[in-house]
Amino acid sequence: ASAAVDEEIKALVDTDKVLDTKLNSFRSLYEDLKKKF
User: Fold this and answer.
1) What stretch of H or E contains 21?
2) Residue 5: predicted pLDDT
3) Where are the domains of the chain?
4) What predicted TM-score, i.e. pTM, was given to this entire model?
């Protein structure tokens, strides 16, 4: 059972990393836009 839980946690962490990356690229886009206006 604990192995399955480990897999779940790893999947969640990976999803988190993907979301972080998306957030960061969105944030830099936003900063770029602010500089232009």
Assistant:
1) helix 2-36
2) 95
3) 1-37
4) 0.59
